[in-house]
Amino acid sequence: MSALQGTLGLAVFMTIAWLLSALSALLFYWRVLPWLVRSASRLLQRAPGHAQ
């Protein structure tokens, strides 16, 4: 692997990380992310095989 490929891979990774961070911040600000987490939690609690 050349140095250019390594640098390009890092740039792509950092761009994706930045976009995901910005998206999660917006979803949290708009109060969508907590709703999604609560919904996923309830759905997984009802999943078969969940011991209580």
Structure description:
The longest helix has 27 residues, at 3-29. The chain is built from two helices and no strands. With 52 residues, it is mainly alpha-helical. The chain has helices at 3-29, 33-45. The protein is elongated, with a radius of gyration of 18 Å. It has one domain (3-45). Helix content is 77%, strand content 0%.
Q: How many E-type strands?
A: 0
Head-to-tail CA distance between termini = 50 Å
Helix content: over 70%
Query: Which percent band covers the strand fraction?
Result: under 5%
Distinct helical segment count: 2
Using only C-alpha atoms, the radius of gyration works out to: 18 Å
Low-confidence residue ranges:
none
Count up the domains.
1
User: What is the 3D form?
Assistant: elongated
Structural class: mainly alpha
What is the succession of H and E elements? HH
Mean pLDDT: 90
The largest sheet, given as strand count, sense and whether it forms a barrel, is: none
